[in-house]
Amino acid sequence: MKCPFCSHAETQVVETRVSEDGDFVRRRRQCSACDKRFTTYERPDVNFPVVVKKDGSRADFDSRKVRASMMLALRKRPVGIAQIDNALLSIEQKLLASGLREIESTQVGEHVMRELKRLDKVAYVRFASVYRSFEDVDEFRQLLRDI
Fold first, then answer.
1. How far apart are CA 55 and CA 58, in angstroms?
2. pTM higher than 0.70
């Protein structure tokens, strides 16, 4: 690892710690030339499928966008953050396990709807009403009957 202060190529690991949730490893390093210390973080490099939007454009999967949509649907509902985190993790795991390089945005939306339906029926209806862009009340009624 190259020293960020003097660019010397040799550094030594002084201390290693795993994060509380086990998502990354924190290492304290010391440069053998200038003796300055710095911190590095190691995280797994995972490749989510690229999301193909309705207009044909492509964007990297962004779990923050999915979380924001879920939080909006779950606003003022009795669902804890840990439950939301678990639902988001489930969606991410399904996307990674699919092995796909690209995925339609509609499929991501369906994953979100399944998780919201499991967490809270009201949030599911909120999300579905926007996501599916209902044209009339009958479509909305059909969704409610399906629940």
1. 9
2. no
**Residue 97 shares a structural domain with residue 132:** yes
Structural domain count, the chain: 2
In a domain, 134, yes or no: yes
Residues 65 and 123 in one domain: yes
d(CA 126, CA 104): 21
| DSSP per-residue letters across 65-99 | HHHHHHHHHTTTSS--HHHHHHHHHHHHHHHHHH-
Dist. CA 106–CA 53, nearest whole Å: 8
Task: Kindly report, residue by residue over 75-120, the tens digit of the pLDDT.
Answer: 999 999 989 999 998 999 899 888 899 999 989 999 999 999 999 9
Residue 108 to residue 38: CA distance in whole angstroms: 39
| Contact criterion met (CB below 8 Å) for 3 and 36 | yes
29 lies in the same domain as 63: no
Full residue range of the structural domain in which residue 85 is found: 50-146
